[in-house]
Amino acid sequence: MTTSEPATVDTPLKALVGDKTAKALAAHLDLHTAGDLVYHFPRRYDERGEHTDIRSLDVGEQVTVLAQVQRTAVRPMRQRRGNLLEVTVGDDSGGVLTLTFFGNQAWRERELRPGRWGLFAGKVTEFRGKRQLNGPEYVMLGDGDDGEAAVGEEVEEFAGALIPVYPAAAAVPTWVIARCVRVVLDTLTPPEDPQPAAVRADRKLVGIGTALREIHRPSSKENLYRARRRLKWDEAFAVQLTLVQRKLRAAAWPAKARPPRAGGLLDAFDARLPYELTPGQRTVGAEIAADLTVAHPMHRLLQGEVGSGKTVVALRAMLQVVDAGGQAALLAPTEVLAAQHHRGMLDLLGPLARAGELGAADDATRVELVTGSLGAAARRQALAEVAGGRAGIVLGTHALLYEGVDFADLGLVVVDEQHRFGVEQRDALRSKADQPPHVLVMTATPIPRTVAMTVYGDLETSTLSQLPQGRSPIASHVVPVAEKPAFLDRAWRRLREEVAAGHQAYVVCPRIGDSGSGSGSQSEEEPPREDDNGRRPPLAVTEVAPLLAEGPLHGLRIGVLHGKLPADEKDAVMRSFAAGDLDLLVATTVIEVGVDVPNATVMIVLDADRFGVSQLHQLRGRVGRGSAAGLCLLVSEAAEGSSARERLDAVASTTDGFKLAELDLEQRREGDVLGATQSGRRSHLRLLSLRRDADLIRDARVEAIALVEEDPELERHPALAASVAALVDEERAEYLEKG
């Protein structure tokens, strides 16, 4: 596994570590070149003096632990011939783990002597209450005196104070990766440092060669910190440079200005609004109005708490564009939400939305709904209104993106709940305009400042934090059915009390059920029937609804709503619920966003631990939308003290969406936040933490703005441009470019 030829980051691994190992690295870890391998960073470091806390391991987890052999035992197997070797290992935390080896392997008993330390890798299972690893891969740390136990040079990576533990695979354990890294680092010619010398000096960054060496083979904790800080900087700087360049280019694009028109639809709408806009709505509205007046495309993020009135702000922007002779399109994630937006806007606009009808206002426009479930005749009619420009406001789902949906003059695109749409879908709607349209992105999931800076750094951001007058507070409580099953009976009685008082309720389940089997719709995901640890399947709408109708909620008028229902049936159910003809809606997360029934006051979320923090916050925003107080009960079997229970307790303790967004960020995979999932490729952003590295990200933003102002295309910094292209690959850059 050695080579005398100097290697570069582009050298194939086959030339450095041999064909067999290179194939395994490629097949299992997608590592092909020396550069791929040296940028495959350790996920953590074990220390000889501070051993891995075995007690923290979860069943089902793929782990590598540093532990000491405590005792061994050999006994005959009951079901087949041969012996079973059981090895008990532990660490200073008091945690113990059983290693089991099947077959006659006497040499292992000699190797795994009590007192020796080793690294053991495998999947944690449980047998008769004891955690164990079956047939784990392992390497002993050299203090033995026989030939098989000696580890020598093969495991020198693990003999120092800091032992790197890599993201690994069963076929390629962490010590094999470390061995390969050692070979590559010993022959690698350090790449040209991409960071400008002035930036390195100002930010006190170590060189790239030192950083790559120290992150894999740290000589001290201090040097490891410096290496990680440098490599995190590279990631943050690459993202910020891409966003700043994108923002600069967007500012140079031409767009048609859409200035306000005195005495137009917007003025007429404001005059007929039945309530006062909040100060926040007025401020944000003024920001958007100013953006629309400029001959460059607006690219603005509008975030706000559930129920803060974002839709009215967006509608006012749409009316300004219609007043200026253009059209506005709103893209909603579900047919339920698109239809609700349609009904809500028709109610708010009244005669202003009835162009061509009796009783229409003089300046009236039309509001058209385009969804996949429209009948052929209705679809033809709607598309003709859109193509002819008579429909100033067009609402729809992804059906708006299809070929054949043409606009006369698309001036504004509003994307509701942008995280529900893929990059290509959002871009397809923007491409229907002759010139880049103005874009307003809305989300009811509050975004921590660091996320906004890193993921939406090319957008101007507006925030609505006030709730409109008349909105009621929402109380939330956890119902711990494992400890206190009687609490669930009380929850059902509480729901009946609300219905008896003339109100309505939701019961939310994480799954549709067998009648809706298959993958979820765009609005909801269908979780697996059971997880790897054998927990029961998540509760399902189609199973829970009849049980409630026959049991604790007998006599109530119950409707069912989920993403697999035909569109007309979904719409009929929602209309019935909104009209008060149903007391209770048993639903999936299809109701998560936008559903507005002011008379609904109570929500019971079953298996609440199966939902994410932001999802629970969105869901409970469906109650308390009128004058009566809202109540949300989070039903869970999660044990007290578990991470799932702590998450639910946090949701119940606050209605501050920004606090919950920070918590959500702590618990989510940050790769998803950074767009790795949306881009469909392995993310090259491996070290950057949006939560822990906020200061570094802010500093990178400052440097990126200064550098791009001097050298917009990085022509004077070719090594940096190449580094940015490698870290923020083409698909990732497209993801950022399309917003």
Automatic annotation (TrEMBL):
InterPro entries the UniProt entry points to: DEAD/DEAH_box_helicase_dom, Helicase_ATP-bd, Helicase_C-like, NA-bd_OB-fold, P-loop_NTPase, RecG/Mfd, RecG_dom3_C, RecG_wedge
Domain Helicase C-terminal, chain residue ranges per copy: 487-666
SMART domains according to UniProt: DEXDc, HELICc
Keyword ATP-binding attributed: yes
Chain positions covered by the region annotation Disordered: 511-537
Domain Helicase ATP-binding: from-to ranges: 291-464
Matches recorded under CDD domains: DEXHc_RecG (cd17992), RecG_wedge_OBF (cd04488)
Record keywords: ATP-binding, DNA damage, DNA repair, DNA-binding, Helicase, Hydrolase, Nucleotide-binding
Gene Ontology MF terms: DNA helicase activity; hydrolase activity
Protein name in the entry: Probable DNA 3'-5' helicase RecG
Source organism of this protein record: Micromonospora rubida
Name of the gene this protein is made from: recG
